Each structure stands twice: as structure tokens, then as C-alpha cells.
Amino acid sequence: MKKRFLLMSVLALMGTVMVISCGKDKPVTSDSNAVATTKDGAVFTVDTLNSKVEWTGYKIFKSDNTSHFGSIKFESGEVTVKDNKLESGNFVASMNTLTAEDLKDNKEDQGKLNGHLKSGDFFEVDKFPTASYEITKVTANETGDYNTLIDGNLTLKGVTKPVSFNTNVVVKDGVVTIKSEKKDINRRDFGVNFTSPASNGVVKDEVSLQINVKALEKR
């Protein structure tokens, strides 16, 4: 009887492990919005020295007390402006510039975290050195704190998903600035599936992104 019970327990455990493993191996597929923008307007080039993506990752509970934050720099990009309004845009970010700014005063810990985030556990930067965002639609917001809703396709770790941002867009004196509110994305949607041991603090699936772009008119 004990042997039978033990055998049933082992089989049940194996079944559980198989279910968990299958869940982890679920393939990630791309999905994107059709591009509905035109590119008839004046071209502005992204000022890569003064543009970046800010990110925040969370552990256990989604709060500033259990988070890391940092930035990723753009390596290229451009937007078009027609009738003094944002018309279209595409941006490429260098994942090799990903850095945890909250640890800037502790270079050893910062280096360890940066290295881990760039490894195969997270963004696999050696294989996927860039991330990109293409604007597919621009809509004026009539109310609220942000004047423009931007829809677009975000490609991260080789996976493309539609992501929208509420933004403030300003076009003035040959300069375009785009500043978004924080936007949560689910890292698992992009194949970033790392799960830390509970003793180290569970890494939340949500990552907050905030875009800050400055673009200069081509002369």
C-alpha cells in the first residue's frame, strides 16, 4: 500500500512538473498594428545625446521601494511633422546602453545587475542588440494631461507587439520633443521569462517605460 501511494505521488509530481515546463515553453508570437501614418512632412532626426527610454522594474510589490530604474539610449530615429503636428516616427534603441541608474553610486552592484539584464535570462543583448518602436497612428487628445496619443509597434527581443503611449508633443523652433507618461508592458509578452527564487524577491512581470525624445529638423 505504501509503495502504491509512493508511486502515485511520484507520478503526480512528474505530471505537475510537465505542466509547469509546458507553460514555460509556450512560444511567444508577434502581433502588430497596420501603419496608418504618412510621411509627407518635414523630417526631424533624433538627438541621441538628449533622448532616452527610462525604465522601472519591480520586485514583490509594485512600488518605488522595491524597484530598480534606469535608461536605454537611442542609437537612431526620425519623426516627420506636417502642419506643425507630429505625423510619423520610428526609433531604434541600443540595448547595450541599458543601465541601472539607481545603482550608479555602487559600481559593483550596478555592473552585476546590468550584466544580468543583458544576459539570456532577460534581454539577451548579444543576440538582440537593438529594440525599436514604429509609430502607426497619431491622435490628438482633446482632454487630459497629455496632448497626443501615439499608437505603435514595439519590437523587443525579436518580438513585436502593439503598444500605445499618452504623450506631450511640442513642435517649436525646429525642435520636436516627445515626453510620454509611464506605460506598463508585460515582459513575458516579449519572451523575457526569468523567474527569480522567492528568497531573492519575485520579479514582477510588469516593466514601466517612459519615452523622452528630442528631434532636430534636417537642414
From TrEMBL:
Domain Lipid/polyisoprenoid-binding YceI-like, first and last residues per copy: 43-216
Keywords: Signal
Presence of the UniProt keyword Calcium in the record: no
UniProt signal peptide: 1-23
PANTHER family in UniProt: PROTEIN YCEI (PTHR34406:SF1)
Record has Signal as a keyword: yes
Species whose genome carries this gene: Elizabethkingia meningoseptica
Protein name: Polyisoprenoid-binding protein
